[in-house]
Amino acid sequence: MTKTGRLGLGITLLWFSLLVLIPLSAVLVTASEGGWSNFWRVVTTEQTAHAIQLTVTAALVVTVINIFAGTVIAWVLVRDQFPGKALLELIIDIPFALPTIVAGLVLLSLYGNDSPLGLHLANTSGAVYLAFLFVTLPFVVRMVQPVLQELDRDVEEAAASLGASRLLTFRRIILPSLAPAIAAGAALSFARAVGEYGSLVLLSGNLPFESEVASVRILSAIENDNPAGAAAIATLLLVISLAVIIALDVIQRRVARRG
Amino acid sequence: MSDQVYVRKSRRGLYIGIAVLGAALIAGFAFFTRGGQADPAHSINIVGFAVPEAANKALATQFNQSEFNTTGADVAFKTSYGASGDQSRAVENGLKADYVHFSVGTDVDRLVAAGLVDPTWDDGANKGVVSSSIVVLGVRDGNPKNIRSWDDLTKPGIKIVTANPASSGAARWNALAAWGHVTENGGSEADATQFVDALFKNVVSLTNSGRDATTSFLDGNGDVLLAYENEAILAAQNGHGFEYVIPETTLKIENAGALLTKHTKVAESWLAFVLSDAGQTQFALKGFRPIRDDVDFGGVVDGAPDPTHPFPAVKHLLTLDDFGGWDGVKDKLFGDGKDGAPVGIVTSSIEKSGKATQ
Fold it and tell me: Are residues B142 and B195 in the same domain?
């Protein structure tokens, strides 16, 4: 390894440790304070277990939707010309840039009981899905878009001239190139959804067994001076997120290899 | 010039760049941590819960013009407001404060346990209470569901919005009022448990703070908002008022204020001002009930339903003392089952409410 290489690695490790590794270990240490039995009791409390289940299910569903919708949006933005394209290009990041509590207020006024659209999602689990969809929209789009832009159209034309159908071309030529980007976007989208709080908290009503998410359970544990309980829930979410990210990577490699 | 030398030169550039960047970062941090630190003799750090922010701001202005300020110059206030429990934990973990103002006394007790506040903080004539209000029932204009009392809340079809007593310490005043409405009117604890169960069954939104509950209610959620009189009055002053009903039995909300063991000298004068008639007048003008009945605040409070008669007497006003203080109810009503302890009655009501609707 060269000198610069070592320096670069050093900076990377230091930065990563300060921002990620040390805080994460702190969470794990706090969670372990109560011992295994406490950990298990916290995460299997019915109300908490349901909140975790809702959070993970909603995050998974939203991620799958994003994989399709995000890829389509990226496709349209790259391959099609239409009036207002530049504007769409600009506003697609807004859900991500908006402070989450503002997003929550917007969602509440649009889909709450006074909904001008006639959609009443307030105080239901639907609110959780909606809020997740709202804040995670840009991830897959923004990951896929640049890859699609760089994709060589000649290869597609060659495939077509050799008699491949459009579907076959997409499956064997385009999708394998996009797979890593889609997977990266999906991982970001899942991770963001699992930890989401601000945007859904007003609309969802935080009803136990209905619309209460894991982050609200974490807050409740903290309010009761029970940091070990809060860290236990956080740890479980971390483990689940890690598993999902690994699974996405495995799938992505498979799809990419099929090219 | 050979390639080798060129590469080395550009690498040197990289090192210099990194060194300059590092130095700039350190200088930046040093600047930020040092910058803005006013003369400590003339500054007070206030850390408080969100509700009294407007009142404390008015108090600070008045304080600087009053004889309580003996420093001869304007005192600079550095303030931080947020959820009561979060703010208390922040101070416990090192947020600088001279004076804290929390929704519930247990948030000050946390600082006593951490050795940051003197254990005698609530021994004074005011028992540690610096501002006060009551629990009220916010209703829709014209009170279409005809809500008059706590018992009306458990009728079928009534939709209640309240902050979540599990995740918001301040919301515990609401739940305690509901509980006390039964136990302090001759009901047994079993009756009270049944009432609280029925009440939470009608709850349609459990927000994380009183402010969120108000926002949700004003955006069309629910028929009834468990609210605080001062919040309702302040909301009206800001043009977002809502009608409210004062039930015959309700709970006096007593917000705790304390100096930290380490405080600036002028912070003592500040606390004296907060407790004085002049200070309590400022609270009253923002909708809080003065902590003493004899405070003459002028009699008019904008934003109250009847501004010339802003704080109607409550027939049966409960106080925390009736329940033996927070120590008497904290685990019994609000415990979360930490370390295998039994969960509190209200915690369990909230859990049951969700299962019932499944």
Answer: yes
CB–CB contact B334 A123 (8 Å)? no
Query: Are B116 and B140 contained in the same domain?
Result: no
Q: B324 and B211 in one domain?
A: yes
For chain B, list residues with pLDDT below 50. Answer: 1-7, 32-37, 358
Contact (CB, 8 A) for B224 and B160: yes
Q: Give the residue among B283, B256, B264 at the shortest CA–CA distance from B59.
A: B283
Q: Do A201 and B212 touch (CB under 8 A)?
A: yes
Kindly indicate whether the ipTM for this predicted assembly is greater than 0.85, answering yes or no.
no
CA distance A138 to A145: 10
For residue A19, the 8-state DSSP code is I
What confidence score (pLDDT) does residue B24 get? Answer: 63
The type of residue at B68 is: F
- Residues in Cβ contact with B17 at an 8 Å cutoff, skipping those fewer than 6 apart: none
Tell whether B357 is within 8 A of chain A (Cβ).
yes
pLDDT in tens, B29-41: 555 444 444 566 7
**Contact predicate B229/B246, CB 8 Å:** yes
Where in A45-188 does DSSP place strands (E)? none
User: From the candidates A7, A40, A119, A206, which should be mutated to test the interface with B, based on the most B CB atoms within 10 A?
Assistant: A206
Residue B193 C-alpha from the chain's centroid: 26
| C-alpha to C-alpha distance for B3 and B1, rounded to whole angstroms | 7
Domain match, B178 and B317 both = yes
CATH number for the domain harbouring residue B279: 3.40.190.10
Residues B169-218 have pLDDT tens digits of 778 999 999 999 999 999 999 999 999 999 999 999 998 888 888 889 99
Q: How far is B19 from chain A (nearest CA, A)?
A: 12
Is residue B290 domain-resident?
no
**Interchain contact, B18 vs A38, CB within 8 Å:** no
